[in-house]
Predict the structure of SET domain-containing protein SmydA-8-like.
Amino acid sequence: MASTANMLAHMAPNNTTPEELARLIDVHLGDLREPSPNWTLAVSPVSGRGVFATRHIAAGELIFRERALVVGPTARKGSPMNTCVCCHRLLPVQQFLCPHRCTLPVCPGCAESPAHRDECAHFQRWQPKDLDVTEEQPQPQPQQPTESVNPLSLRILTAVRVFYLSPEQRALVDAMQANAERGYRQEIIKAAQCFRKFPTTDRAFMDQLFRIVGVLNTNAFEAPCRVGEHETLLRGLFPLTAIMNHECTPNASHYFDNGRLAVVRAARDIPEGAEITTTYTKILWSNLTRGIFLKMTKHFMCDCARCNDNTENGTYLSALFCREQGCKGIVIPVQTKTLQPDWRCLSCENVFPHAKMARYQDFALNTINNRINSSSVPDMIHFINELCPRFCPPSNYVLIEAKLNVIWRMTRFGAPEYTEEELVHRDRYREDILAILHKLGAGECTLKKLITEEIQ
Ligand SMILES: C[S@@+](CC[C@H](N)C(=O)[O-])C[C@H]1O[C@@H](n2cnc3c(N)ncnc32)[C@H](O)[C@@H]1O
């Protein structure tokens, strides 16, 4: 097993030059590479390498498209595991595991396909312990799913697939940043425990695996993919999209076309030479929520203009009501660049410790999310309009997200008939959100496109 020091050395930002990285990216883009791209790779003043505009790029203009270098299941606990690991179709709830006993969920067609052959042999060699369970119960009981998939062994599949990429594709994975995080090591240890013959003593293999898992956790996206009526989230490595550094209100937006193709467009005008940025968080989250998410998952503190403004461009997405008796003012964080700021009331100027306001924010978050999960659309509208204003300022991001949830539910899932009044509320919520995006300077971001296109 690799020592921690050795592992960390492997994880350290690699020193592939931007030129070599650019060559590997060109090979990866293949026919999707434009003859004279409007972007280039260079060392970034923000962090590591970044993507930069080679000329003025107008808002809305296409910057690049790229296919996934590798995809696999996200294998999130609670998500349907009976999804084919190759074509992502929903499988029956019984007997959906590979007939060749690799214990991966796969449809009959894909089980025999070249796409599955190598990984199937790989998993068989490692001898999944799940086989013991299925062998003990050779006769499945009707109505009772006897097969189960271990999310930990399923999650390692994307990393295994990296071993079967071409040498140039492997070089590209090796050229990507891999953050050093103890949790990634745990991910591998837990996956190893799912197999009888996981090669934990093969040092070269384990070193490579540690780095690949680091690359995936640092760079991979969760990309929605729909097959028929079944929607699933794929874990995809899109190297060029991943090289873009983060900004909380970015100048570019990206979306995934059915899990396999990333499309990146300018959200605002981008001057020649400027770094092209994307966001790793939700754009409507408050400063603190984004800060905690970035620290925990991407291991950095963002220092962008939005993070340094405690009014959040005048959107007050963090705002909570003052805790002082009789005061109806709003309270916002005082300091930026910290995840534990003091909070001050804009009316009475009282200052509150972060712990107190964090408990209050959690209360608002849980109360609103519980409603989202349990209420019909009309009930949710009533809750947002009548009850939320009693405990949550209208600018708070949780309330804004609740409005967004109502918009999605009214436009996406089936089409129950809504009353004129409900439609008016939906349109008002959309206007509220568009006004916030405008204040943030989000330009033609993906969210704006979605909420304006979905409501016609
Ligand atoms: C997907 S990589 C981005 C590409 C990376 N710059 C490179 O050279 O490959 C994500 C990592 O880049 C760094 N990063 C991205 N945006 C950043 C920002 N705004 N501030 C500080 N670090 C950032 C963090 O280390 C983060 O974990």
The chain is about 40% helix and 15% strand. The CA atoms of residues 360 and 415 lie 36 Å apart. The pocket of S-adenosylmethionine is lined by residues 44, 46-50, 176-177, 179, 218-219, 242-243, 245-246, 298-300, 302 (CB under 6 Å). The domain at 287-454 is CATH 1.25.40 (Serine Threonine Protein Phosphatase 5, Tetratricopeptide repeat).
